[in-house]
Amino acid sequence: MQAPTYLPYLITALIYIWVAVHFWRTPTPSQTSLRLHSGLIALGLVVHGGLLYQDIFIGDLNLNIANAVSLIFWLTVLIYWIADFKHQLHSLQALVLPPAAVTVLLQAEFHDNVVVSFANDPLFIAHIAIAMLAYSLFTFAALHAILMAAAERALHQKTSLLNLAKFPPLMTMESLLFKTISLGFVLLTFTLVSGMLFSEQIFHQALKFNHKNIFTILSWLIFGSLLVGRARYGWRGRTAIRWTLIGFVVLMLAYLGSKFVLEVLLNR
């Protein structure tokens, strides 16, 4: 790829990496540094969003695996950036920004044209938009669960791979985790319903029991069970973290697993 074309992807990745590295090296940054972090993340989001618009929406709707993963992490960083204004989630940027930087570079490298059929169908567009937002919320929840695990270990003075000095209170983190999962569960429900409506409209079959649908329904059951367990039995702590991560892995297998097999393994 030519340097002028590659340059905005590289700049975006470097912005994300710089902010993450600065936080790792300065786990208790000043308010001036935090404002600088927020401004740089906003700049990265703007450039990243422009690159996604260019690669996905200019011409045919192109959601190859690199664009899809990059879009999910763009939304995840955006959710983090908005939530940080209220919940002071400075530690999370050390986790979410490095993989976001990697996805930007992957987006730059892989330009396979995976044209999405029915791109002009409003129901299908709504289905895709809701699904991407749901995946991003659960990505946020998974990273947040990892951060909670590190905070819990730090509270008990145990060694951890994440040496982040400043965590929000565990109760605050747990409350945000379940708010995120609850909203993600609602959107995942709409994803399933809109998918069935679209399938019935196009294929005259509401639900196909393929790999993607089975894993999506399984993840829906896992997150639903977690929310019921929280409401009825007070599930929290390690139980909540474990169920969140299991549900996230299953959900990613549903969408990204099927795309990886179709676009990468079968196209070799």
Sum this structure up briefly.
The protein is mostly helical and 268 residues long.
Description of the structure:
With 268 residues, this protein is mostly helical. It contains eight helices and no strands. The C terminus is likely disordered.
What about the largest sheet? none
The level of helicity is over 70%
* Secondary-structure element pattern, one letter each: HHHHHHHH
- How would you describe the shape? flat
Low-confidence stretches: 262-266
Share of residues in strands: under 5%
Strand segment tally? 0
How far the N terminus sits from the C terminus, by CA atoms, comes to 21 Å
Mean of residue pLDDT?
82
Number of helices: 8
Rg, Å, rounded: 19 Å
Q: Which class of secondary structure composition applies to the elements?
A: mainly alpha
Secondary structure topology:
Layout: H1 3-25, H2 31-57, H3 65-87, H4 93-109, H5 122-155, H6 170-203, H7 211-233, H8 237-265
Key features of this structure:
8 helices; disordered C terminus; mainly alpha; 268 residues
